[in-house]
Amino acid sequence: MSLADRNRVVLLEDRVENVSGAEFPLNFGSQDAVFNLEDFENSFDINIVCVTETDIEFDLIGVDASIANALRRILIAEVPTVAIEKVFMVNNTGVVQDEVLAHRLGLIPINADPAKFLWKQPGDIPTDQNTIVLKLDVACEVNRDAAPDETDPKKKYINSAVYSSQIVWDPKGEQERQFADSPIRPIHDDILITKLRPGQVVSCELHCEKGVGKDHAKFSPVATASYRLLPDIQILEDITGDDAELFRSCFPPGVVDIVEENGVRKAKVVNPRKDTVSREVLRHKQFEGKVRLTRVRDHFIFNVESTGIIAPEKLIEQALDVLMEKCAIAKDAMAKITNGDEEK
What we know:
- Helices cover 24% and strands 32% of the residues.
- The chain has 8 helices and 18 strands.
- It has helices at 3-6, 37-43, 65-77, 98-106, 153-156, 175-178, 241-249, 312-343, and strands at residues 8-11, 16-17, 45-51, 55-61, 81-92, 110-111, 132-139, 141-142, 157-158, 161-163, 168-169, 185-186, 192-195, 201-211, 222-235, 256-261, 264-269, 291-306.
- Strands 1, 2, 3, 4, 15 and 18 form a 6-stranded antiparallel β-sheet that branches.
- Strand 1 and strand 2 (16-17) form a beta hairpin.
- Helix 3 (65-77) crosses helix 8.
């Protein structure tokens, strides 16, 4: 099997072929595929496709699925953030129970740089170095300026809905000076926490701590972090005329276009990365033997959506730092084992 063929996952009508079944990454059957650093450096690449305030799409090329999945898992579970860890309920007369309200508060993303805080270990006392204090004090009352026949609770009452914008930062120690340029607050102001009616009150103190997603999902810096293999649609024979129109309709918009060559209209693949690999085209007999659906085994299209705590491009940097740290630990451990064997 050639390198190009073994580097493709082939999708057939009822099954997927040439999936990796090797015991070791990048090892294919009886062929010699020993890892070579120089070859890896030549083939490895990262292409950033799109970056917004909260999202990033990039291509990770030339690595095994184990590396791509390690990066994805680190993004979800091992990049630290700051989140509400303890809720001290002073008064809650609303309909949402204390436990449920505390859980909802914990999931609100907090705009605080985790690099500026220490890890709070069990038994440590709260300080301005490891804890952020927030407060929520809201009481609902009748809006006396509302019309007598008003039915909209937002106009009829004051504070009928409690939002994240009503959470107030209570700086301690040197925090006010340290975060003067970027005051600590919820990332989003419009997160609904609970609803109240006249006479009901919510009053609590919130303590935020540094943590990682593998301890609790509230610490995860991403809303989603996923990857997929780059589709590779190979047209083996020209598809022309009405068949070309049908062929184009089998794919999402923008994947296939109709071009005219020598007066003949024919199908042409223009942007395979938009394909969802539905295999719809394989249902039609007229395309049998004319098209081959594959995916590039070592080309990963990553889509990462940040919760807003950390910029998406910074998230990737921090995840790679964690991955390199893990590799260094594994390397040191292997060196100790090898040296121990040599001494014996």
